[in-house]
Amino acid sequence: MPPDLRDILDQAHASLAPDNAIQAMHALSQALRDRRTSLGEAEWDELMRDAREHPLAALLREDPLTDRARARPRGYPGDAVAMDFMYAGMPSAIRQTTSRLGRAVFAYTAGCSAAAVAVRQRRNTLSLAIDEVASSVSGARVMAAGCGHLREARLSRAVTSGTLGELVALDGDREHLRVVSREFGPATKVKTVFAGVAEVAAGKLQLGGFDLVYSAGLFERLDDGEARAVTAALLHTLRPGGRLLISNFVDGFLAHELMQAFMDWKLACRDETQLLGLAGEVSQRARMGARAWRDATGCLAWLEIRRPGGAD
Description:
By secondary structure, the protein is α/β, with parallel strands linked by helices. The protein has two domains: 3-114, no CATH class; 116-255 and 266-306, Vaccinia Virus protein VP39 (Rossmann fold, 3-Layer(aba) Sandwich). The chain is 52% helix and 15% strand. It has 17 helices and seven strands. A seven-stranded mixed sheet has the order 3-2-1-4-5-7-6, sandwiched between helices. Helix 12 links the parallel strand 2 (166-171) and strand 3.
């Protein structure tokens, strides 16, 4: 391990305590980001593997979010339970068995880190998009691709009142879909569909006629080829006039390096230009109907494609 990286980790390990955890974690995030700027991808990956062998890594696993990401009980770090930590905080049963330091670190990773704030704002944006389409289209149909636990639907008046035509919750994790089925009864008009990325990318979904299709966190797990194929497949499930919304974390947001180092959580980041490139590679017509923007936190880029007519 290079001496300067060891110094960063040693200092964080020595200073981290329950009473100053948020400040210490913020300083660690900043120091790791600064260190990364001078390194290539392969060299950075090697340093992150070294960081996970440092005593600081074991200390940070007292945080339930960091521990779950490292353990990967669903096979990947950012599963729906991990997202729930950011949405709703630490469940009381977990709090009872978590150290004081773990709770303090959690307050940063799942509470006030830029990534956690962006995730909650993304959920709010999507709940508003559902309500907007429900108010403008009679019997509107919506699909959430990579739905997780579908937490944005809990904030939607159209879903909770049953005024939406249908909300199809699509995911490749059956446990996620079991939670959705349990929490959303027939009156909400939520329907679950099991399908993985491969099925979606291959265009094997026998689904269509949607007024809104969105994907909240799926694209951060896709390489560019998969992202293009999934974008094309989702676009073709829209009705004429329908809207596709995709969000993606951008590179360089504060805490990204922390996530890579101590959660082993790497995101496929894309900025606005790269998201617009996905639309252009699907079709020129899709590109002409697309726009992209950065969210208020600066952590997320959004892509919107309006489908003006029939199939491309």
